[in-house]
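Troubleshooting log. The previous structure file for this entry was overwritten by mistake, so regenerating from the original sequence record. Sequence copied from the archived sheet and checked twice against the printout by T.R.
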Amino acid sequence: MRPDTALVVVAGVLGAMVGSFLNVCIYRWPNDESVVRPRSRCGGCGETIAWYDNIPIVSWLLLRARCRRCGTRISLQYPLVELVTALIWAFMAAIMPGEWQALRAAVFFTILLGIALTDARQYIIPDEFSLGGLALGLLFSLAPGFPTLGQSLVGAAVGFGVLWAVGAAGTRIFKEDAMGGGDIKMMAMVGSFLGWERVLLTIFLGALLGTLIFVPLSLIGKKRLVPFGVFRALGAAATFLFARPIIAWYRNYLILP
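Regenerated output below.
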C-alpha cells in the first residue's frame, strides 16, 4: 500500500469516527445538551449503547438498523452522516497538498455538514458550530498555508459585518428580524477559514441558492421558513473547492474590458 493511499484510508476511518461524534452534536447541541454525558442511549428502551454496537457504519449494518435489546429502528441518518464524513476526510487527504491543509479542510467541511443538518432539522445554528468553528479557523491560520492569521481575522470580521449589515437593513425595511444571529456568526466562522474575498463569494452563492429555492415556493403559495444556513454551507463548500476559477471568470469577463 502506497503511503498516500494509506493516508487516505486512515483519514476515512478517522472521518467515520468523527461522523459518529457529529451525530451526537447534531442531536444534542440544538437542545443545549451535553455531548459528553450521558452516553449514547437507545431512543426506544433507554438502554446505554455498548461500544461494540456503536462502531461507525458497521454496527448499523450488523444490527440491521435496529436496537439489539428492544428492536427499535435506528435512523438512517446515523450511518449516512458517518459515511459522508468519512468520504469528506478521505477526499481531503487525497486532494490537499499537505496534512495540515487536509485536516483544516476536513474540519471545515465537517462543521459545514453539522450546520446544514441542524439548520435543516431545527432551524438553528448552534454556537458550538459557529463560534467553536471560528476559534478553530483562527487556530488553523497559525499553520503554514492560506489564510494567514491576519487574513483569517479580516475574513471573520467581513463575514460577520456584511451579514449583520444585511440583517439590520432587512429588519428596518420589513419591520421584523431578517437575519438570525446564528447566520451572522456562521459567516464569521466561514471567513476565518476562507478569508475576506472568499467569504463574500460564499455570501453571494448562498443567497443565490436560497433565492432559487425560496422564490418558487413563494410563487406557489408555500411560504415557509427557509433554513438559509443550508445554502450558505453549500456556498462555502463550493467556494472552498472552486473559488479560483469562479473569481478568475468574474474578473476576466465582468470586470476587465
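The chain has a mean pLDDT of 89. Archived copy saved in two places this time.
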